[in-house]
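Narrative summary of target 7.
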Amino acid sequence: MVPEKLGALEPTKEVVEETAAEVPHEGRKWQKVLKVLRWTFSWTMVRCLIRWWGYYVHEHVSQVAQIKKGRKVWIHPTASFRNGQNIVIGDYSHVNRDCCLWAGPNSRIILGRYVLMGPGVRIHATNHTFDRTDIPMMLQPLREADVVIEDDVWLGANVIVTAGVRIGRGAIVAAGAVVTKDVPPYTIVGGIPAKPLKSRIPQDEGGKQE
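Modeled conformation, tokenized:
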């Protein structure tokens, strides 16, 4: 019964052809062009551009100027930062497209040398508390703790690193992982929450690290 009712609502071939004939292809094309032109030269567009420009200056330009950067650091223009004065990026590290590094007023994000990030990585040195139910969570105090990413760490695309985490030298975090605990050096982790998958250090036949 249900498929029959749904099928009855679908337009017939004749109706589709008749509707298409009423608005020729060329006419539909110009309708779209006029719509774009109308909103391009509108006050709504002006307001959106002003807001976008203000956001970019606040979230990127002014913050990058305050970050303590090492030699040959590469930062994508779409990266977002908070409290740049509390962010340190070591030599030769990369901050990729759409990454967010949000330090707190009293907490730092420290990246070592040769840190590699995929697009969309989020590193937060603050987090909302939710201890009370009589106050909205966005109005409750923040919990702040430093985040430290040591040298030669690879954070895959869309990784999230929460406040207070330390990721050891040479570690790899798989794409999409959420890191809530410290990661030992040269360890590959993945999942939600991130858990150890294997070690990068070769092992002998007895299972001991060489």
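The longest helix spans residues 43-64.
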